[in-house]
Amino acid sequence: MFDKFHEECGVFAIYGHPEAANMANLGIFALQHRGQESAGIASADSAEVYCHKAMGHVADIFTVDVLNGLPGDKAIGHTRYSTTGDSAKLNAQPFSAMTNKGRLALAHNGNITNAMEIRTALESEGAIFSATSDTEVVLHLISRSRERSLPAALRDALLQLEGAFSLVLLTKNELIVVRDPNGFRPMAMGQMEMSGDRISYVFASETCAFDLMGAVYMGDVEPGEMVIVNKGGLTRERWAPRRKLSQCVFEHVYFSRPDSMVFGRPVVQTREAMGRLLAKQNPVAADVVVPVPDSGVAAAIGYASESGIPFRMGLIRNHHVGRTFIEPSQAIRDFGVKLKLNPVRHLLRGKRVVLVDDSIVRGTTSRKIVRMVRNAGATEVHLRISCPPTVSPCFYGVDTPTKNELIAANHSIEEICRYVEADSLEYLALPNLKDAVVDTRGEYCYACYTGEYPTDLVSVESLIGEKSQRG
Ligand code: AMP
Q1: How far apart are CA 321 and CA 246, in angstroms?
Q2: Number of folded domains in the chain?
Q3: Is the shortest distance between the CB of 398 and ligand 1 below 6 Å?
Q4: What pLDDT shows up at residue 462?
Q5: H-only helix segments in 243-296
């Protein structure tokens, strides 16, 4: 029924800006790394809610003409990584629908783990769905609520949801921003001073979206909090009781940009700390520390500074690899990785290399990169991974394959080392990852490394089974 129950996304929202859609365009452009399949913006003035979404990259979709068709002083934006296939366009966000609470536009980052159950119940009562995304369920629940005001109806809906959701909701009159009580996915809040002492409020999955427009980061929307912005100003209220937090550690490991603050902490600080701790944990005699760009750069800088081994950009990344590149010949093995990365032979020849990357998922990329570095003349390749082995799929919004496809779920570190053909392989130990994010109060989710899920997953259990059979 659902294409997949993990979607990687970036969301943005702005209120009180004369060029709201243009700002949303800049915002989701800065969040492009969080999803490259589809993007959308909904804007609103006091008369109407407008929406445009399409498959592809933000810069290609939002031309001047398209942006001119999105008037108003408030807007929300979304970038989405989705499955391929016919349903992908249907699932592009924001979702916009006419309800008994007026026209709503909604964008979502995360994964509602009981969406399937809710949808089945609604369908049995005659509800019609146009997409296969879990986000549409929220619109139905809002519409069906007997509460008259939108915030109250939204609260009604939210109380029925389980899992991960950072949501932005737009109407003609107001913007509402919400985080789930576990705080799985981030949502930063910022502001811009406008003329006449007015303030424009901005919200984004990551603070890198604020920098381009000069907005100032003011902190996060709290887990279990609803922020409402309308003519009366900004109000904050709790819609759910406090819960133990489960902030996604993978945001710091890989997903977020290093120039962002996520969960109130600079991502680059975490990544450099991961590298330093990895060097302390597993030192090795080597000549150069080489990152797998871009994901391994900050951790490699940390590893180099702690170990005293020089940092070298021994792999160069081509940032312009399109999705539809036509392979000249199937016979060229490793073509995909070669398109993206090229070894700097001058830096690698005759060297003992510490190769640093953020994670190993299936193991296929690491194997190709180790081979590439060795073919460039490295005498030894020691692979260092700045997180623990990924042993369990994520059900809270990160795209991970089935357990069967996760190499570390089924193989020992020695076996993985042999598979990727490295001279040695070490992963950052879990206690060190906790130190790197300074998690002294147990406020992060580590389920992909431990298999211990912080919420009930009753409704996805059948899917877990289905996934492992498919895998
Ligand atoms: P592989 O081991 O071949 O499956 O690929 C692992 C690489 O994919 C890692 O080095 C990461 O840079 C990247 N990666 C890890 N998790 C994700 C994710 N959820 N979405 C996209 N890329 C990822």
Answers
A1: 34
A2: 2
A3: yes
A4: 46
A5: 249-250, 267-281
* Residues forming beta bridges with residue 193, ordered by sequence position: 199
Structure tokens at 19: 């060029």
232 lies in the same domain as 381: no
CATH of the domain at 60: 3.60.20.10
The boundaries of the domain holding residue 120 are 10-246
pTM of the predicted model as reported, rounded to 2 decimal places? 0.94
Same domain, 94 and 215: yes
Does residue 470 fall inside a structural domain? no
Ligand 1 atom nearest to 398, measured from its CA: 19
360 lines ligand 1 (CB under 6 A): yes
Amino acid at 147: E
**Which of the residue ranges 75-89, 144-158, 202-216 would you say has the lowest mean pLDDT?**
75-89
d(CA 9, CA 34): 5
Chosen domain end from 246, 279, 300: 246
Count of C-beta atoms within a 10 Å radius of residue 36: 17
- CB of 359 closer than 6 angstroms to any ligand 1 atom: yes
Cα distance between residue 255 and residue 33, in whole Å: 8
- Per residue in 134-155, pLDDT tens? 888 999 999 999 999 999 999 9
The strand pair at 265-266 and 261-262 is best described as antiparallel
